Amino acid sequence: MRYSIRLIAVSFLLTCLAGVGLAQSDSSAANPPRLTPESGFISASRYTNAFFGFSLPLPQDSALREFTLSFKGDGSRHFLFGLQSQKVSTGFFGANVKLTVFTMTAKQSSSAPSEEAQRAASGPKGQSVTRIEIGGREFWKGESQQKVTEGKMRSISFATALNGYVLQFNIESFDEKLTDRLQKSLEEIEFFDPAKATELAGPNSRTYSPLAPPAMPAGSQQEVKPNTGTATSQPGTAPKPGMFYDKELDLHFNYPVEMEPLDASAEMESGHQNIYGVSGENDPEHQQAKRCLRPLLDADLPHAKAPQRAADLGEIWVDDTKQYKESRKPEPIFAKILVLETVTDCLPRKLQQNKNDALGTIALSFVSVPGIQRMPKPIWYEVGKQKIHMNSGVGRPLVNGQLASAPIIIMSMSTQWRGHLLAWVFTSNDAEIFNEITKSLVQFGDGAWGPMFAANIGPKGSGASNDHSSEVRSAGVTSPYHSLTCPANSQNV
Question: Does pTM surpass 0.70?
Fold first, then answer.
């Protein structure tokens, strides 16, 4: 599997959200170039990464030269930047070569990012690591040395978790002085808003990308088919406003009648065009998302049917920075609900064998958008005896190197039903509306109806769930706000 399920989910979600204009930033130029983890700037004295938003000084050593590596066959790993040095000295016993290699890499996280960073720093031999802080972020540092025929080699590794990736910086060197200088550079890393990369890189820098965006490897172009029994079936229909039913899955889902179903495939295509300025036809990530995620429902809240006021997340999101306050503009309310199925074959082999971990990963994937701060600990609960995994996050999503002008909140749920891996994704830029759409009703087979998430977030607090859960099951959404209306559960479909 070349692409991780997290990359697939994020690609799908961002292109769908772009369809409602979320990805458009007032500060971005029309059709900006697409950023990848490798995108950056370099000058004689500094390396700057434009995707992750960090920079570090480069040692001034005439022996250092740029070099690149390729992670062919592994789309989850990215080579960012590299330096190497070969210093040759001659003596009575012949020539002595001091080799140094310095690399920066990024790997998509598939579980707990901090734990993965710790493991990355410990290396293949599992050496002990130390937790340190650099640039205001948690890093893990591992260090070892060994004597070989060529001399004493020092190995130092720094790793940190950032935006769903593990950044790793490695030094392998026989040159003790150069090792110390490289380590000092790493300890001076600065992190910043990626949107400022061009400005902070300075006028003397040039754009830098060691590799072109990775292409699909030979032999991996075959079509990935959905689970048995779903390939020829059509997505569920919505015979009445706010009512969804998939006959094959025997799945009912009632959502606010003000929301309108959209063509998810068309929205993905237009969203890709909005974000990157080009069609997604030749984008392997985009095509993989289309192959691995089967949309069942894509519902959007039209502006005309939303409350006619500015969106407000209230106390859910607070940003007191001067930059945000000066750039913040009132925005209309938007909301979106996605229901989709993940193709099992697209999961890593280990997750295919452990559905509980697979569901947790799927729920995590849809909130692993750069710029989104995830909840500290995911939860699971039951709706009609059906186990639901839930994860959520809030923040200003980073799309193609640009921060969205306003924050959003995302909540995703996943469950296994009749051998199918299903997910719900709720998104809005308004706390009141978000708390209403998450009260949408679901019924698995002939089980009991229940809200997708009975609790409220934000000012009303989670305690509201006990007060309203029984009302929601019997008469549709009865949230504390009543801006939207969800159909009751007594329909005949």
Answer: no
- Written in H, E and C, the secondary structure of the chain is CCCCHHHHHHHHHHHHHHCCCCCCCCCCCCCCCCCCCCCEEECCCEEEECCCCEEEECCCCCCCEECCCCCCCCCCEEEEEEEEEEEEEEECCEEEEEEEEEEEEEEECCCCHHHHHHHHHHCCCCCCEEEEEECCEEEEEEEEEEEECCEEEEEEEEEEEECCEEEEEEEEECCHHHHHHHHHHHCCCEECCHHHHHHHHCCCCEEECCCCCCCCCCCCCCCCCCCCCCCCCCCCEEEECCEEEECCCCEEEECCCCCEECCHHHHHHHHHHHHHCCCCCCCHHHHHHHHHEEEEEEEECCHHHCCCCECCCHHHCCCCCHHHHHHCCCCECCEEEEEEEECHHHCCHHHHCCHHHHHHHHHHHCCCCCCEEECCCCEEEEECCEEEEEEEEEECCEECCEECCCCEEEEEEEEEECCEEEEEEEEECCHHHHHHHCCCEEEECCCCCEECCCCCCHHHCCCHHHHHHHHHHHHCCCCCCCCCCCCCCCCCC
From 116-120, 244-248, 297-301, 358-362, the region with the lowest mean pLDDT: 358-362
157-182 pLDDT per residue, tens: 999 999 889 999 999 988 889 999 99
In CATH terms, 219-475 corresponds, of 2.60.120.1690, 3.30.497.10, 2.102.10.10, 1.10.620.20, to 2.60.120.1690
- All CATH 3.40.1000.10 domain ranges of the chain, comma separated, are 40-208
Domain 40-208 sits in CATH 3.40.1000.10 = yes
Residues 8-62: tens digit of each pLDDT: 555 555 555 554 445 444 433 334 456 889 999 999 899 999 999 999 999 888 7
- Tell whether the model's pLDDT for residue 1 goes beyond 70: no
- Residue 71 predicted with pLDDT over 90: no
